[in-house]
Amino acid sequence: MAIMMPASDQAVLARRSEIVAALRAIVPGEGVIDTPAEMRAYESDGLTAYRQPPMVVVLPDTTEQVSLVLKYCAAHGIKVVPRGSGTSLSGGALPLEDGVLLGLGKFKRIREIDFDNRVVVTEPGVTNLAISQAVAHAGFYYAPDPSSQIACSIGGNVAENSGGVHCLKYGMTTNNVLGCEIVLMSGEILRIGGKSAENPGYDLMGVITGSEGLLGVITEITVRILQKPETARALMVGFAQVEAAGECVARIIGAGIIPGGMEMMDKPAIHAAEAFVHAGYPLDVEALLIIELDGPKIEVDELITRVETIARGCGSVTLQISNSEAERNLFWAGRKAAFPAVGRISPDYLCMDGTIPRGALPRALARIRELGEKYQLGCANVFHAGDGNLHPLILYDANKPGEIERAEAFGADILRACVEFGGVLTGEHGVGIEKRDLMPEMFTEIDLSQQQRLKCAFDAQGLLNPGKVFPTLHRCAELGRMHVHAGKLAFPDIPRF
């Protein structure tokens, strides 16, 4: 599929051999990849509908090398696309024909484990799951747990502000990252935040987290680790109507109960997951809730009783409670494997990501069903029910003419509906290129220009990951100009200095 991206700089492409040689001098050995066959692995991220080989791939393994690469590219007007593990589902790491693909895969060391301060200092290429594994012996773990946690890197998690099953209670990535080392496009190395929960001045960590590689390249991250709860048990609850499951979610939260995780799957997703994992999911229900409660045993026992009462009051038709750690893990196994499971029943699918208020869940699912009929495509729904983060999986066959275009239109309409219902375009996957052209559905031109001004403060030349997030690119100088129409200033009564 073709998508509009920034025009290639032919002058840069003409100097390709010179650029590759200069990068090899900075990152020697196997740190530079420039042959078409070897670069094929980097032509897309998890959004494989869009592909573009980069001009060259650079794989540094020190912060100093990252700094020198960016400084060289800034001096010569060369675009740079940072990349983690390539699991992004929004096209955030899609390369550019005239750009350097800067891979952080060699940054895979955990630099420090500090149990006294309950933090881990890690490089960005370390996988999400590896952090929990590194501290498990002492009874700790890292809370945010995307479904791809076995493969996705912590640097990519920070770039996209990733979520996961347990983010309802323990927060998104932004709530669990305390500090980072970041290299600006100029080559300047900054340290932001640290090991303490609070830092003076502006919340720059809040700016960096979720910035999708547009502001700088992260080379070190300090994350918060938590002690594992004394007890964790899960309920698997089936409903004959999706609306009843949505009502159950609302009543649980309304009762002041915050589960460790609360996930929902509809019938197509249930059947796909059960066939793949054999977790014992009921196949005669329209919706399935998996609700995990954690904490001291006496508290968990009480909460299970309360949640069971709420579920039965909402008309649950099946209800099973885990009685062992193995059984709890089995309940979650199907949910964690839902995406690959759906891949077994459809040649291709688009994984969408939008967020709605919990109360709008029944309306959103009804709209998705209507859109499926309109576009004549199937859809399996898997989502973080507790915080309203939807993941509709739109089923299509790329080999059938016109199906991918219909799938994209279907997905765009789902995201428009999320905004219509009071939600947002993305919950955790980021904007990238997938949602870029839908940004005006949620933001005014003034809003978008203000966001681009922030980018300009970090990257005045606009060389870092251009073509992502913003539907209309502006030069930084243009954003600072005052617009005068017909010789009249806007808002002439406002004093100007």
UniProtKB/TrEMBL annotation:
One of its GO terms (molecular function) is FAD binding. The keyword Oxidoreductase applies. Keywords: FAD, Flavoprotein, Oxidoreductase. Its cofactor is FAD. The keyword Repeat does not apply. SUPFAM superfamilies: FAD-binding/transporter-associated domain-like, FAD-linked oxidases, C-terminal domain. Residues 50-228 form the FAD-binding PCMH-type domain. This is FAD-binding oxidoreductase. It comes from Bradyrhizobium guangzhouense. The lineage of its organism: Bacteria, Pseudomonadati, Pseudomonadota, Alphaproteobacteria, Hyphomicrobiales.
